[in-house]
Amino acid sequence: MNAPVSPPVQTFDATGATPVMQQFFEMKTRQPDALLFFRMGDFYELFFDDAIRAAAALGISQTFRGTHAGQPIPMAGVPHHAAEAYLSKLIRMGFKVAVCEQMEDPAEAKKRGSKSVVRRDIVRVVTPGTLTEDGLLDARGANRLAAVAIRAGQAAVAAVELSTGEVECFSTGKDGVGPLLAALSPSETLVADRLLADDHLAQTLKICGGLIQPMPSALSEPQASETRVKRLYGVDTLDGFGGLAPAEVGALGLIAAHLEMTQAGKLPALRAPRRAAEADVMSIDPATRSSLEIDRTQNGDRNGSLLAAIDRTVTPGGARLLASRLARPLLDPTAIDQRLDAVEWFVEHRGLRERLREQLKGSGDMARALARLALGRGGPRDLACLRDGLKTGEKLAGMVGGSGDPLSPPPVELEGALAALTPSLHEGVSQLLNTLEAGLGPDLPALARDGGFVAPGIRPELDQARALRDDSRRVVAALEQRLIQEAGISLKIRHNGVLGYFVEATAGKADPLFQPPLNATFIHRQTLANQVRFTTVELADLDARIAQAAERALAMEVAAFEDWRAEACALAEPIQAAAEALARLDVASSLAEWAEDAGAVRPTVDKSLAFEAKAARHPVVEAAVRRAGDPYTPNDCRLDAAGEVAARLSIVTGPNMAGKSTFLRQNALLAILAQSGCYVPAKNFRLGVVDRLFSRVGAGDDLARGRSTFMMEMVETAAILTQATPRSLVILDEIGRGTATYDGLAIAWACAESLHDTNRCRALFATHYHELATLEERMAHVSNLSLRAKEWNGDLVFLHEAADGPADRSYGVQVAKLAGVPPQVVARAKEVLDRLESKTESPAKLDDLPLFAASAPVAAAPVVSAPSAVDGALKELDVDGMSPREALEALYRLKGLLKT
């Protein structure tokens, strides 16, 4: 997502402006590149270019109000109560919105003078990565703000989920930025503006970085960044976060600067940065993620993805954690086994699992509720969410901890979660839970200022104020009856916002009230066409006491809310740990639920180079086939990068529609599931850890960059051939199909050779070039697989069965017939095919082509002197990003290299 093209920043001359417009100009100057939501009563108003742009984007009316500098002022507005929906639409379109609120009641402003302007201030700047409101967020999806920094050739990616307080930091090389951002899938990415001059990095950010937000390069300088990060966390040193590299500090500094600007000084409840190296998770580049449809289909839908197929979670936090695990599969077999142990335990304890999942449904989303409370945007319902979540956690800890099976205690993954969910282990959390259980009433408003959320009996003075406020109707009715008896005429006691309580009589009956002795009791206030209004000393006193009681009751409730909010924020760390524990329980139990539904088994993940799948299925395709009432044909696949127990490279042939692409994707998804800690849909599965997963399946172009489908295919293939290691898994489909036959065959052949001889990785290579089948005889670790199909009574039947050996033919004409190609065209194609196949000699025999004969030695390249150590060191210098001290140290280092 990229922001809409912004017009040149407007400059305003406030000369002659009204006080309100002067206030608007002041706020707009502070946020010139944001749409300013300027609160005026019940509306957020937009003026000048903001109004024109917002009206066009939202489809609302744009009018004019008053003039400035002799020109009418464009204006548009949205109701305050419906602002969230409009904000959501603007943010999705890439706008930034500054929210300017009224900071005092208009009545308070009038006390300073009749022409005084209500105080206003910008309370937040809304950007895609800083959303916290439920109505603006996908409850089951993360909303991350990321930042990229590069120092001295080393890159770092930091990410914060503001709505939950989770912070992560990754150290990587420049080439690792793309896969990391693709895994994080941020809504907004901050980057120093000087880095955007790097075309490769700029394109990487464009592909997977959400809204790109350029930041002044000075904000990523280590010293300034360190100061901001300390201020963000309220610490004196960053040593407690481990030895953060300069690039990591720079990335975190960009996030700290952005939060200071957008949150108007409010500090979010953030966890300490969770650091990880590039080598901790499987690397999956953006193209591979797209083709495998891990969390989104290529059309952008969640339905049809791997995540949607296996997601049985019942809490928002669990759904987000599952998505995060699938996005970043682990590389450590021990950590993977700990996750699998938790799933297996729930598979074995079905009854307990069902009861636990039922309890989890009422736990709410504690992480996001806490974040809103910390930022001052929460309300009583968020406190109730903490209460319900902590109470659920307490029940689950007792339920799972007391499962009564001494022979099968909860595994390590679950034991840690249960400890975090036991309030008695943390005195402060236990006290907060007791306070909220006793203090919150049954019917809670969204905002504290609406009142009515503190339970009776908690604060005696509050109960007294409420009694006076709530008994006002009875007291007023009694006074009305007494005044009627004293006056001897019909009258009513009414109330409005201007006069407060008053006595009202019709004009025809009011005369006695002006005469003695009644005029001593009834004081005239207002005469209308048909009514006359009076007050009495007793009524005025009652009016004041009722108004004061209501205000006092609300003030006491707001004070109680602030006390509880502060108590919750002070306990942010254990509450966040409890929220994460609930999510872990949800993920483990939901994966067990899915495993039982899908007939999935526990995989074996080790340090070998093997890939052994027995009777495996594609989880997404199988679910769709089941819904249609059809059976799914499972398939085996065996690979071994060492070439000891199976081939390193399998050439997969077969007709279109036979299932080659499904077979390829199926095996890649098995690796993702296994290393994410999930069961896999197979009879048996063993996997040697995959460090990088590459997929080149499907066709696509990049017209904006002038790249054809074939060019994109070659770019992605080049990335695979230059980055795949012996521990990688590569799936390739139809390499070389986008060019002339012999060119395509030559490219496919050379790529297969490189994967086998140079990369030496596990690879599945689907092709229609049947000539590649001869590689099995020419290379030591190549095998042939084919997806079978049979002709029956002139029709083609797909068996979807992978078998050893190459396909006998492509059946292209039969597939064309199935696709609905006109019969005369199909008949003509068959005629041409028969004539071509009947020729005794092909125009060019494979064995006659020099390309496919024994590889000839490559001509020696011209001798070029190797670059010196100084040349290499110079290329690594990040001149623009160096501090003066770093530059001086670099000069001394270069001088030392010259001497050697």
Automatic annotation (TrEMBL):
Q: Which UniProt keywords apply?
A: ATP-binding, DNA damage, DNA repair, DNA-binding, Nucleotide-binding
- Lineage, top-rank taxon, reads Bacteria
Single GO term (MF): mismatched DNA binding
Q: Which terms under GO biological process does the entry name?
A: mismatch repair
Any one of the GO CC terms: cytosol
The chain positions of domain DNA mismatch repair proteins mutS family read: 728-744
Q: Which residues bind ATP?
A: G654, P655, N656, M657, A658, G659, K660, S661
* One Pfam family per UniProt: MutS_I
The Swiss-Prot or TrEMBL record describes its family as follows: Belongs to the DNA mismatch repair MutS family.
- What does the UniProt function comment say about this protein? This protein is involved in the repair of mismatches in DNA. It is possible that it carries out the mismatch recognition step. This protein has a weak ATPase activity.
Protein name listed in UniProt: DNA mismatch repair protein MutS
Organism (species): Caulobacter flavus
